[in-house]
Design goal:
This protein is of the alpha+beta class. A hairpin with a 5-residue loop joins strand 8 and strand 9.
C-alpha cells in the first residue's frame, strides 16, 4: 500500500469535500500563531464530522505509520499545531456543536471545535457561563483542553482543567473511550481526564468535552489603578487576593504595554495627566457580585486597600471603556507582534515571588542587550514578557536564564501557552530527567509508534 491508497481511504472516510491534499491546502490550516512558525506541507488536512470518522482516521494513520496533528482554531502561540511534513492534520472545525446543556447540574457537553465565543453565545440565555477567559475568543475548546488554557480569569475561576469533568477520546489505534463524566468528583481509579488535559495532543484525540459551568454574575465593575512602580503593583496583589474580595480578573500592564494597546485601540481612559506622568504600571481589577449593594461595598474596600499600598489614583471605568480596555488587553499579542517582538514567554511563578522575578528579568535583559515589556495574570503569578532581541543566540540564552530563574523560584516554564515546539529545548534541558522518563513511558503506553503530534514536547527527534 502507498500514498494513492491513503489518499482514497481518507476520501472514503470524510468525503471529498472534507479533505485537501498537498499542495492544495488552505495556508491557514498549516500553522498556529507561533512567532517561529514555518511553512510545512502535510500530506492531507481532514475535517471529520463524527467521532467514528476520527477513529477511522486514527486506524488508517496507524496502518500507514503516518503522523497525526490535531488542530482547533490555530490560536496557539507555541507551535503545538504545526503540521508534520507528509503527515495528516485532523481539523475539528466541523465538530463544533453544543451537544447537551444541563442547567440543573451546570454542565455542558461540547465538541472540540466549538469556540469560546460560540459557547458563550449559546449559553447566554441560560444564565450560565464557561468562565475560562484565555484572551482569544476564537480559540476552540479542544485547543483549550490540549494546552490547559488559563487566561485573565484564572485568579478566581482557575484554568481549563478545573472545569473539565470528562472527555471522549480516540486513541491512536482507533479505540474510543470515555473518561470522567457529569459529576463533580470521583475517586475511581487513575484520573485519565486530567492526564490528557494539557498533553498538547500527544496522547489522544479529544472528540467530546464535559464542562462544569458557573452562574453569570449580575453586577460587575472594572477598576483601573495606576502605581508609580511595577514593584508596588506586584506587592499589593497578595493583599488583594487575601482580602476576600475575590476579583474575577487581576492583571498588570507596564506603562509601555498599556500605551501600546490603548494607542492601537484608539482608547482614552481618562487618567489624569499628572498621574499618568508618574505611572510606571497599572492594575486592572474586575469585581463581580450578585447585588449592586455588595459591588459598591467591594469597590470602596478595594480602593482603600490599594490607596494604602501607594496607588496614585483609583478609576472605576465606565462600562464601554472597560469593555474596550479588556478587548485591547486581549489584542496585546497582535500589538507587540506588529511592533516586531522576537519572543513571547509565559513563565508562571508563585504569586509572592513575582516582584523578585521581574526585577531579575530586567537584569537578565540588560546583560543580553534586550528590551522587554510585560503584562500578565499577576493574580496567579503568570508573567507574560515580550522580548525584543533579534539575535537568535542572545535571545535563546536570555530565555534560558529567565526559565532557569523562574524554575528556581518554584515556577514552571509555561503557565498556559504550552511547550509545543517553541519551548521544547529549554523544557527538555531544564526538567528533572526522571520526570521526563516517566512521561515518556506514559506517552509510549498511549502512542507506542509516536504518531500523535510528534516532534514536540517530549520528542527529541530532529525537527523535520
Amino acid at each position: 500500500m502507498g500514498i494513492p491508497e491513503l489518499h482514497n481511504e481518507l476520501i472514503t472516510i470524510v468525503g471529498v469535500d472534507a479533505v485537501t491534499f498537498s499542495p492544495d491546502h488552505n495556508p491557514d490550516d498549516l500553522h498556529d500563531e507561533s512567532l517561529h512558525s514555518q511553512h510545512v506541507e502535510p500530506f492531507a488536512v481532514v475535517r471529520p464530522a463524527t467521532t467514528q470518522q476520527v477513529a477511522d482516521i486514527a486506524k488508517v494513520a496507524t496502518r500507514y505509520g503516518v503522523p497525526l496533528t490535531p488542530r482547533g482554531s490555530g490560536t496557539g502561540l507555541s507551535g503545538g499545531a504545526t503540521p508534520v511534513p507528509g503527515g495528516i492534520v485532523v481539523s475539528f472545525s466541523r465538530m463544533n456543536q453544543l451537544l447537551r446543556l444541563d442547567v440543573s447540574d451546570h454542565i455542558a457537553v461540547v465538541q472540540p471545535g466549538i469556540t469560546l465565543r460560540e459557547l458563550g453565545e449559546v449559553l447566554a440565555p441560560s444564565g450560565l457561563r464557561y468562565p475560562i477567559f484565555p484572551g482569544e475568543l476564537s480559540g476552540s475548546l479542544g485547543g483549550n483542553v490540549n494546552t490547559n488554557a488559563g487566561g485573565m480569569r484564572a485568579v478566581r475561576h482557575g484554568v481549563t482543567r478545573h472545569h473539565v469533568l470528562g472527555l471522549e477520546l480516540v486513541l491512536i489505534d482507533g479505540t474510543v473511550l470515555r473518561t470522567g463524566g457529569p459529576v463533580v468528583k470521583s475517586s475511581s481509579g487513575y484520573d485519565l481526564t486530567q492526564l490528557v488535559v494539557g498533553s498538547e495532543g500527544t496522547l489522544a484525540l479529544v472528540t467530546e468535552i464535559t464542562l462544569k459551568l458557573s452562574p453569570a454574575m449580575a453586577h460587575g465593575a472594572t477598576v483601573l489603578v495606576p502605581f508609580a512602580s511595577l514593584d508596588a503593583v506586584t506587592r499589593v496583589v497578595p493583599s488583594i487576593v487575601a482580602s476576600g474580595l475575590e476579583p474575577s480578573m487581576l492583571e498588570y500592564l507596564d506603562v509601555l504595554t498599556m500605551a501600546a494597546i490603548t494607542k492601537a485601540a484608539a482608547l482614552e481612559l481618562g487618567v489624569n495627566a499628572v498621574v499618568a506622568v508618574q505611572t510606571a504600571a497599572y492594575l486592572i481589577i474586575i469585581l463581580e457580585t450578585r447585588t449592586a449593594q455588595q459591588l459598591e461595598g467591594d469597590i470602596v474596600d478595594l480602593a482603600s486597600l490599594v490607596q494604602e499600598a501607594g496607588a496614585l489614583d483609583v478609576y472605576v471605568l465606565p462600562e464601554s471603556a472597560a469593555t474596550r480596555l479588556i478587548e485591547a488587553r486581549e489584542r496585546q499579542f497582535w500589538v507587540v507582534k506588529a511592533a516586531g517582538v522576537n519572543e513571547i514567554i509565559d513563565i508562571v511563578v508563585p504569586r509572592s515571588t513575582v516582584p523578585a522575578f521581574l526585577e531579575e528579568a530586567r537584569h537578565i535583559a540588560q546583560r543580553h542587550e534586550a528590551s522587554i515589556t510585560g503584562c500578565g495574570h499577576v493574580g496567579d503569578g503568570n508573567v507574560h514578557l515580550s522580548i525584543f532581541q533579534p539575535d537568535d543566540d542572545r535571545r535563546v540564552a536570555l530565555s534560558y536564564e529567565l526559565f532557569a530563574f523562574g524554575l528556581s523560584l518554584g515556577g514552571q516554564i509555561s503557565g498556559e501557552h504550552g511547550i509545543g515546539r517553541d519551548k521544547q529545548d529549554p523544557y527538555l534541558a531544564l526538567t528533572d530527567p526522571a520526570l521526563l522518563e516517566l512521561q515518556r513511558r506514559i506517552k509510549l503506553t498511549f502512542d507506542p509508534h509516536q504518531l500523535l503530534n510528534p516532534y514536540r514536547l517530549l520528542d527529541e527527534r530532529p525537527l523535520p
